[in-house]
Every structure is written in structure tokens, then in C-alpha cells.
Amino acid sequence: MASDGGYNSVDLTWSPCSRHQLLTFFSEGRAECVKDFPALGGSLQDWKPGLYYGVDDQCRIAFGSTARACSFSNPDLPACRTLSCHVEPQDISSCKRLLVPLLDGTECAPNQWCLKGRCVSPDDFGVSVVVNGSWSSWSGFSSCSRTCGGGVMLRTRECNNPRPAFGGNDCDGPDIEAELCNQLPCEQTQLDFVAEQCSQTDPQPLFLLPNTASFYKWIPAIDFVKGDEQCRYMCQSDGERFIVSRGSYFADGTRCKSDISTPYGATAACLRGRCQVFGCDGVLHSGKAWDVCGVCGGDGSTCILTSDSYSGGGAKDYNTFLTLPVNATQVHIVNRAPVFTHLAMMVGDQYIVSGSGTMALNTTHPSPLDDDYVQYRLHLTPDLLPEMEEVVVPGPLRQEMTIQVRKRVKFLKLLSKCCFTLDPRCAVLCVGGLQLQRLSQTNSSGFM
Fold it and tell me: Where on this chain does Ca(2+) 2 bind (predicted)?
């Protein structure tokens, strides 16, 4: 019966009950009110329901909660005359259409809105009213996206109460709030979590040629994509080494490497297909950082700096010169004499750097995505000779770690170096003569 939503509704019919009520309404002489024009007093929002209910909302009302506006248009159908919706969640190739006009005030083109089945500009409304956008209420927080390893719970709001129109301002502020949850470590690493998501698409064919299905084993493409691309389900084929997107985006909470400098202790994680930074407090964009002791928002007063020296050990053997305790932070080891020595590192009884008698290549253990990572870097001269070895352990460590050195000659003094730690037993060496300095502040990597 309403003027909005009833244009050319050829597939809609009156029920017997509605027909009887309408006839009664007219027969009792109560229909004079339909002869006058609607009053346009007050704000424009009061008589343009499309400012509150966009096309997606209208699709959900007409076809159910999973429906949304069609992603393509039909030039033979005026934009405001027909409600066109994707009804099936996974089907974006077809539209179901209902021959009813879009609600007045529905945005139909840039700087144009629907009015009585036509897509018009603000000048055609006959009134000069600017509608500034206003936020809806926040939704409730979602459940955590992961059971361990740091998932995400979020809540959202929309700029639809009403939507901005006729030159009005968009809503100010974020439309999403999120925080990390279930942050206890999983048995698997963060890289394993990405690998698991890629491997789940192995049964899904890839059509490189028309009507020809190809199947591959899919593995993470972490070293080949950057920024938000890391979150868009990018995987590489094992062996073939080409990269494609295997879905819309990785699960919220999947780790990534941010393009921007992140505060010490911050976490870069995927959120709705984008690589976002959570502060050390787990809150999206909070900017909070660990101090040099690994305390979130601390002042650096809860830990100590220790140093020592080492000159023992036999030649051609791996000699332990340091054991890093659990919770050690801000560890930086430098070997400036890699022609005569090289470093090795062990976790438990497993070597993660070197250990086979030869110098290691650059590596990050277990991966750049993991919170408790160890980074080993080998620096070369222009002639490609080893110039310096460097080990960085931001910490806090979750398990004890052993640092070893292997000498090629018997007499070589290894000088001392620098470490902040939660444990006073920690002593870290800078091999080969690095000057001892106390760090008063830290950058994103934790070292100068």
C-alpha cells in the first residue's frame, strides 16, 4: 500500500485479508487522507527511508539475511526501478530481481539518490538540505577467531543512522574496534597456521587453461608478498613457485609483517584481509609498546643490564659461552671476526643456527611471523667474504636458548656485550670487540 516499494510490482498480489481491510477502509469514508500531499516539514531524513536502509538492507529484507546488492548492473533496467540482489552467499554471477523501486533516499550513483523510482541529483529534490552521516550503535563483540596463538574479536558500527547524503559529511572515527584474544601459544607455529590454511585448498582445482583442472600442493608465500597482500590468502604452488589467491582472505589473527614500523612488542595480524597493528596490550591501533624489559607500557626499571667476557674454548669445537634464560629480552650478539669463528644456537637439543661445522645462512627461527623469533644475519664484504655475524632475540624468550661459538684457531679473545633481561642471570656477549653501551630507549627492532 505504501508509495515507496510498490512501483510496478507485477509479481505481488493482495491477500484476501488485506483486500477486505482496504475495501472496508474506503467504504467507511476514512480515505480522505490519501488525497493530500505528504508534509515535508522537519529534516530530510524523516521522509527518505533509503538514508537508513541501503540496498544491502533492502535485499536482506526482501530475500533473507544472506542477500546483498548485485555487484553488477543491467543497463536496460533503470537503477532505482528494480531491486537486484545476490541471494546465494557464494553466487555472484546471477541476480534475483524484484520489480519494486528502491526506497527514496537510496544512493544510486555518485552524488545521486533515488526519488520516486528515478536516480536524481540533489537539485531535483526541490529542497536544500544537507544530511550528515551518523553512526549506528556498536555491535556486540564477535567470538575469538582462534582458540590459541592470538585470534581476534571485534565489533563494528555503520555510518547509516542516517547515511551521509546531498553533500553531507561522512561519519568521523573508526567503524571497527578489535583486540587480540586466546593469546596462549599453540603447539604449531604461526607459520604452520598459514601453511594449514593454504593446504586446505589443495583439493580445489586451478584452471590455468579453459576447462582444464590442475591440482597443486599449496604452501605459504610469506617471503614473496608484502603488506595487505599477506592477508589475502596468497599461497604459492610447491615446486612450480607461482603465487595465486586461494580465497578471499586468511583467518583474522593470522600473522603478517606490517609495511610500517611497529612498536616493540606490537603484533601485526590480519583483520578482514588487511595487515593491522595491535599494541602490546592487544588493542587495535593502541600504539602501546613494551619497554626494554618487555613490560607493556613500562618505564624500563624492572630489569638489569649485564655484561661479561669469554676467552675459553678449544679450537674446532662448539663451545657454549652463554645460556639465555626464559624471559630474556633485547639480546644482541655480534661477532666481528667471522673469518676465525662462527656462532651457533640451540633450543633444547636442536641446532637452529649452524651446528654442522660451517657458517649458517641468514635465517629467522621459527619464522618472521612468530612472536618468539630469533634472527641470524651474516654480513658480507663487497668481495663476498664474511664480515660480521649478528644475532637478534627481541624476546621475552619462552624457552631456554644456548649460544655457542666455534673457533678455527686456539687463542682468540671474545669481548663482552649487552642485554636487558627480566632475569639477573642473563649475560650476553658481543663477540669481537663491540663497545658496551647502556640502552636508554629502543626502536622497533629493540637495538641501536
Answer: 36
Termini Cα distance of the chain: 73
**Local structure of 97: helix, strand or coil:** strand
Over pLDDT 70: what percentage of the chain?
Answer: 82
> With contact defined as beta carbons under 8 Å apart, do 150 and 180 qualify?
yes
Is 180 inside any structural domain?
Answer: no
User: Beta strands of 195-255 (E only): which ranges?
Assistant: 206-209, 212-214, 218-220, 234-237, 243-245
C-beta of residue 439 within 8 angstroms of C-beta of residue 324? no
Give the residue among 359, 326, 327 at the shortest CA–CA distance from 345.
Answer: 359
CB-side neighbour CA atoms (13 Å) of 15: 3
3-state SS, residue 162: coil
Question: Does 33 belong to an annotated binding site?
Answer: yes
Q: Rounded to an integer, what distance in angstroms lies between the CA atom of residue 158 and that of residue 161?
A: 8
Check which CATH number belongs to the domain holding 377 and give it.
2.60.120.830
Instruction: Tell me the backbone φ, ψ of residue 224, rounded to 5 degrees.
Output: -115, -5
In this predicted model, what pLDDT tens digit does every residue of 154-212 receive, in sequence order?
Answer: 999 999 999 898 888 999 999 999 999 999 989 899 999 999 999 999 999 988 888 88
Q: What is the pLDDT of residue 311?
A: 65
The C-alpha atoms of residue 70 and residue 55 are separated, in whole angstroms, by 9
How many folded domains does the chain comprise? 2
How far apart CA 182 and CA 187 sit, in angstroms, is 13
Host domain of residue 51 = 16-125
Domain end position, chosen among 125, 159, 193: 125
Q: Give residue 183's pLDDT.
A: 92
